[in-house]
Amino acid sequence: MRHLPARLIGLFMAAWLSWMPDAFAQDVTQAQVKTALVYNFVMYTDWPVANWNIDIPFSICISPKSDLREPIKALQEKTLHNRRIKVRLYTEHSDLGACDVLYIDSRSYSNWTQIKKSITGKSVLTIAGEDVHDSDGFIIALFLDNNRMAFEIDSKAAREAPLTISSKLLRLARKVR
Amino acid sequence: MQLLSLAAWLLYGSPVFAGTVSAEQVALLDLPLEKLLTLDVVTASKFQQAASDAPSSMTVLTAEDIKTYGWRTLAEALASIRGLYVTNDQNYSYLGTRGFARPGDYTTRVLLLVDGVRTNDAIYDQAAIGYDAPVDIDLIERIEYAAGSGSSIYGSSAFFGVINIITKGAADFSRPQASVALGSAGERKVRASYGFKTDNGASFLMSATGFRRKGEDQYYSEFDSPDTHFGIAQGLDHERNGSVFLKAAFGPLTASITHNERERSIPTASYNQLFNDPRAKTKDIQTVASLTYQDKLNENMQLLSRIFMGQHVYRGDYTYAAPDYLNHDNSKGEWVGTEANLLYTGWKGHKIITGVEYQHDHQLDQSASNEYPAGSLDAPAYSDAPQRDWILDDRRSGSMVGFYVQDEISLRDDLLLNLGLRYDRNNYSPSSVSPRLALIYRPAPETTVKAIYGQAFRTPNAYEMYYAVDGLQKGNADLKPERIRSTELALRYDLGKQSSVTASIFRNKVTDLISQTEDPDDGLLVFRNLSTATAKGVELQYEYAAVYGMKLRASQSWQRTKDGETGRQLQNSPRSMTKLNFSLPVWNDLARAGMEARYIGRRLTRENDVSGYWLANATLHSAKLIDRAELSFSIYNLFDRHYDDPGSAEHIQSSLPQEGRTFRVKLDYHF
């Protein structure tokens, strides 16, 4: 076969350029995708009816140092079954049992055993933000796989909370233990 | 207690202040969960920034590219990069760069690093890019290729370019993975990988690979006669390989070991061997171990220090007629070394890196012997028992030391000046000074202009200096390092966030080129600092990448090379190359299709030429079809094109036919 002339290559490129998809053509950061995932986790999880009080905001707790601090503000414009969503910053003194969702970054993993103890028996959806070995009692653990976010679910920890994880989440999880 | 906590909560646990929320984030919240899981995210790595500031033209290939295009070896991945091309002589694969691929060059003029550790062996200086490469391609996170002279930082062999392989980490295999691949010509590959972290934060990765390929019968018209099996080399395309990769990281410390063993039959009867003799084969075994400490000493200082050691064992079995003897060509190189560098950013507007590297090659042994059967008439003396006649037993050692400094100076907000200088000396050839000067100008955020000038060198290796066998080849202890001066002007222009155009013009001038030649006085082969050679050319590349969706990389390069002696174009030097890599999601994102096509122009051979060829490969890869598994199907040489690579001095064939259409299926399973 003869060598393609440069003109043809130019045409070829122009053809591709003309049908480039433009949705989300810009770069999305990990924190942005994680935030959207947290929102989805919340939507596809059921909290016990007894704990559901429309008068109190639904609390998503993150560390003040979390990389989700900026993007997660977007969730405050949403409601969850008529409950307002509030994002709260926790410190080591906070009563984490008051959180409905507790999102923990890897830099706080060292305190995890302690945190886990403090919320035993409370219906708190615990989410590990980064790769954590043996999800270690987190109900949902996020991790990065080939530049894409993925997650696994610890159904035993969910049952103990007790929280009901929808089948949709269970189906999309990479691993359910 | 509860009360106290509540008080603390009121004090500290304030709701996040309301603020502006990006429209992008709002849109992401409305995206279906399935879609979110397919978005490519930008990691915290500053590499992109680094690449545009780098004092060379950089290309980065990722693990995803490797899966998308079904690349089986480093050679296949590198062949997609602009300006690079691979020559396969059915024994080893060699890399050509910007028009330079000297017949008989074992890829000695490109430096291959794995996580920053030099892997070119101590005797032949070879960068192994086929199945003999230091790590399994499945363990590669990223391949960075920096074109041009890199000696100002890396010293010898960073002549035409530097390949740095960044390996995956324990986290990539936190669930054990098993991989099986089956392909045409009896190709089979299995791999098992596992990574874990301990409670104290240490992480470990271990992986082992086994590969075997039966190969196909090869036909060479040059041997088409009744005496030589009508030109058919039967069952001599066999290749097998085993490799192990171990990596441990704890805080600022990283230890790693790469081990690779690879055996390949030789179907070409190179070096005047008997044709179609099943005993002809080469075996290469390489192990490299390193321990690296990298840490921030204070706000302005970062230290990297490393110790490393390596061993390369080569065993070649060559078969000869009349009636029958076996030549064993063996070598063993062992080296240990250390390096340290310090990055200092405390002086405003400067980024200074200074370092020292020392390597001691304590064993550089080359030997050759002929093994004669009992009663052979060809043996030097008659014997009733099989006997071995040693024709080479050369034992050496050597050492080298290098010092370097580089300063990246911000002259203005839009102007960077990168100055580098390295001094190298060793105990067997003259010392070398390698400067590099790069000016990086960014007149607008989307435009980067780089002007680069650099000098690099390659020291003659033990094989070129000391390999001597009576009646065939003699050594040359007076060899000097060969040198290159390279100049490049590169322009990168970003068209929005997803696409970019890169253009570069370059000129390389090599002096004292180490070439194998025949001494007219005695007819023996010898390496000499013979010729000069120049290459000049133009490269154009267009890249497009949507966050999800289509990806395209298209490049065209033209280069002209000239042998300073004859004034002719160099052998094995295509004047034109085209590369197209294109991928897109298919079946509603269930899989990704990757297609690549490349054109390599006509190349001169020893006697005439091999014609230009188009080659296309296609791969379909899915991580969703089967739960917890990744499945891929590839077709190589999709249109079953016939094409040849030039043979080199050791081949009777001036051109070597290459493989036709082949298939491969691969399954990676995460437990």
Description:
The complex is a heterodimer of chains A (177) and B (671). Chain A is built from five helices and eleven strands. Chain A is of the alpha/beta class and 177 residues long. In chain A, the strands form two sheets. In chain A, strands 4-5-3-6-7-8-9-11 form an eight-stranded mixed beta sheet. The radius of gyration of chain A is 21 Å and the shape is globular. Chain B is mainly β. Chain B is built from eight helices and 36 strands. Residues 1-19 and 43-49 of chain B have low confidence and may be disordered. In chain B, the strands form six sheets. Chain B has a 22-stranded antiparallel β-barrel. A five-stranded mixed beta sheet of chain B has the order 2-7-8-5-6. The two termini of chain B are 44 Å apart. Chain B is globular, with a radius of gyration of 27 Å. At the A-B interface, helix 1, strand 1, helix 2, strand 5 and strand 8 of A face helix 1, helix 2, helix 3, strand 1 and helix 5 of B. Strand 1 (28-29) of chain A pairs parallel with strand 1 of chain B.
Keywords:
heterodimer; A: 177 residues; alpha/beta; eight-stranded mixed sheet; two-stranded antiparallel sheet; 26% helix; globular; B: 671 residues; mainly beta; 22-stranded antiparallel barrel; five-stranded mixed sheet; 8 helices; disordered N terminus
Shape of chain B: globular
Poorly predicted ranges of chain B: 1-19, 43-49
Give the proportion of residues in helices of chain B.
Answer: under 10%
Number of strands of chain B: 36
Distance between the termini of chain B: 44 Å
Describe the main β-sheet of chain A briefly.
Answer: 8 strands, mixed
Q: Helix segment count of chain B?
A: 8
Mean pLDDT rating of chain A: 79
- Overall pLDDT of chain B, averaged? 89
How large is the radius of gyration of chain B? 27 Å
The quaternary structure here is: heterodimer
Identify the most extensive interface between protein chains. A-B, 63 and 70 residues
Main sheet summary of chain B: 22 strands, antiparallel, barrel
Tally the beta strands of chain A: 11
Structure classification of chain B: mainly beta
Q: What portion of residues of chain B belong to β-strands?
A: over 45%
Structural class of chain A: alpha/beta
Shape, principal axes of CA atoms of chain A = globular
Radius of gyration of chain A: 21 Å
